[in-house]
Amino acid sequence: MTGRLFGLGVGPGDPELLTLKALRLLRAADVVAYPAPEEGASFARSIVARWLDRAQREIAIRVPMRLGPVPAGAYDAGAAALAAELERGNDVALLCQGDPLLYGSFIELFARLAGRCEVEIVPGVSSPSAGAAAARLPLVSRDESLLVLPATLAEAEFRRRLAAADTVVVVKLGRHLAKIRRVLDRLGLLDRASYVERASLPDERVLPLAAVEGDAAPYFSLAIVRPQRTESTHS
Questions:
Q1: Whole-angstrom Cα distance, residue 181 to residue 200?
Q2: Is the distance from CB of 177 to CB of 207 less than 8 angstroms?
Q3: Long-range contacts of 145-154 (CB under 8 A, 24+ apart)
Q4: Of residues 84 and 70, which shows the higher confidence score?
Q5: Would you say residue 165 has pLDDT above 50?
Q6: Rama region for 115: left / alpha / beta (φ>0; ψ in -120 to 50; rest)
Q7: β-strands 31-36, 57-62: how paired?
Q8: Which residues lie below 8 Å from residue 108, measured CB to CB, with a gap of 6+?
């Protein structure tokens, strides 16, 4: 393949958080690709929409948004579409919300294309960083440790891992909100947890996790747990 693949982290949602390097490569790419639900628009594309050129070819990689792992076939098809463009000598900018290598769909596509073409990865502002900034909560300092945990873990496993860090960022809350809240409450940590929803977007919400109503959270939400309470400003 003579084309180059650029994995571009586009950040959590605010277009102004896109890096200058990602913007430069985005504008120069022959093809722009991005993950999208089976029906509807791509959130990653919406972040950079103002900078897209009509002359650029676009590829929507349709990924089922349902419970459980994404079928390998979805990534196989996406990788095949990208490979076809790369073989034609076209440079492809593959968008990834947040950072490409932090729970990003880019990881699956990279695994299928690495070694077959030249790849450059541009990091983006991750959801833990954006969430901490929204909540005005330091993630770690000095000798502290940071742990990122998916809420999808089984309750016992989540509880076991929780004890291993000074700060824990819980991602993929979604339908697991009630479980996470229950575990933290039993450990006496619920009042030390902050909830951030849609960080960096106009409808961003930041509040104590204990104050969140319902048993489920939007996809773009996370919790930050500080066993040693750090003051934050909730809005």
A1: 24
A2: no
A3: 148/102, 150/103, 151/176, 151/177, 151/179, 151/180, 152/176
A4: 84
A5: yes
A6: left
A7: parallel
A8: 70, 75
